[in-house]
Specification:
The chain is mostly beta strands. Among the domains are: 58 residues, no CATH class; 77 residues, no CATH class; 61 residues, no CATH class; 38 residues, no CATH class. The protein contains six helices and 31 strands. The strands form 15 sheets. It has a three-stranded antiparallel sheet, with no helix packed on it. A two-stranded antiparallel ribbon has the order 2-3. Strand 8 and strand 9 form a beta hairpin.
């Protein structure tokens, strides 16, 4: 005998005859898993899984065993055979009631937490990081979750953990946000500022690591050269410390520059003083300070006069031409070929004047005119 559900009728349990106009399909208590069926397509209903009299005949009408995921039209179709289930009107399939998860195809249970009392093999509520064997173990309680290659509950590709039980799409730098947690799970150290993901004060965005990194100064601990170069011009990460590139020197902990020599362009005295002793930045170039003279390209000194104490010829020559440092008494003296003279109250060494003479023409023995 073929038994089919007969919609639009309910069982009259006492007699077994259909009662028109009722929408329910129940015939006994829900716990007894009973349902009404048409016998051989006739509008006669019997109670399933029980023996009831239909007219003068006793018949046994078996119930259809609905499982989670089966197509359905009414809640009763699901909850008669599936504990704590309903028929989802959107998907038209049997699903677990809110707050319940699948335990078996015919039973939904409240998910259990770690270390909570359970019966053998009863399913616990999975959170991100828990061990798993199939995706379904994770997706039951983790939005957009998967069981990843390491057999742990994680987030699907392109998503990050927003909480222990929720994954959200990756938010790009300066993408829209509603709270800082949304930003931080996508961009390390970022905050939701003005409804967009930004780096907080004291941090800068680094593309290569998709993170906000602290503003570095020379000497800061680093892992990548990019971390240093974001805020320190001409720097690199050497031995996990931000340092100036080869040939450059620190200017103010956030700037590495080339070493200045006398005559180089500058914007401040400090740029010159880093490498030129007693120098200043004057008219946009590094020069010796007032009343000083260049000793070499990187130092300035007080000019010496004749008979001043000296240590080498250079000290004398930078201020007195044609002089040298006499070793016998370590004093500046004129070289032998030069003559000491006083000009405008200052002793100088005068070089000898070179006289050019024109030789008389030499004529041959030929005729002269």
């Amino acid at each position: 005998t073929k038994y089919q559900k007969f919609p639009g009728f309910a069982c009259d349990i006492e007699v077994g005859n259909p009662t028109p106009g009722l929408r329910t399909t129940k015939c006994l208590a829900k716990a007894q898993r009973n349902q009404c069926w048409a016998v051989q397509t006739k509008p006669d209903c019997v109670c399933c899984q029980t023996v009831k009299q239909v007219n003068t005949t006793f018949v046994h009408a078996p119930a259809v065993e609905y499982l989670l995921g089966f197509p359905c039209a009414l809640n009763d179709e699901c909850d008669l055979t599936i504990i704590q289930s309903f028929c989802n009107s959107t998907t038209s399939t049997c699903e677990c009631n809110a707050g319940y998860v699948e335990y078996t195809p015919t039973e939904c249970i409240i998910p259990l937490n770690y270390l909570e009392t359970c019966t053998d093999n009863q399913m616990s509520e999975k959170i991100i990081g828990d061990t798993c064997s199939v995706n379904e173990e994770c997706t039951l309680t983790i939005a957009l979750g998967i069981c990843n290659g390491t057999l742990q509950c994680g987030c699907a590709s392109g998503h990050f953990a927003y909480s222990d039980t929720e994954c959200i799409a990756i938010i790009p730098y300066q993408g829209a946000c509603t709270d800082s947690t949304m930003c931080a799970v996508s961009i390390l150290n970022s905050d939701c500022i003005g409804s967009i993901c930004e780096c907080p004060s004291g941090y800068n965005y680094l593309d290569i690591t998709v993170s906000c990194v602290p503003e570095m100064v020379l000497g800061s601990t680093c892992a990548l050269t990019d971390e240093c170069a974001l805020t320190i011009t001409g720097s690199f990460c050497n031995g996990n410390v931000c340092q100036c590139n080869a040939g450059l020197i620190s200017y103010n902990d956030t700037f590495c520059m080339t070493k200045k020599i006398i005559g180089d362009p500058c914007t401040a005295d400090a740029e010159c003083l880093l490498t030129i002793l007693n120098s200043v930045c004057n008219a946009g170039t590094c020069q010796c300070d007032t009343a000083l003279v260049p000793y070499n390209t990187t130092s300035c000194m007080t000019p010496l006069e004749l008979n001043d104490v000296c240590t080498n010829d250079q000290e004398c020559q930078v201020s007195v031409d044609c002089s040298y440092c006499r070793s016998s008494d370590s004093k500046c003296q004129c070289k032998a070929e030069c003559v000491e003279k006083i000009v405008s109250g200052v002793n100088i060494c005068e070089r000898p004047t070179t006289t050019t003479t024109t030789a008389a023409p030499v004529y041959g023995d030929g005729p002269r005119r």
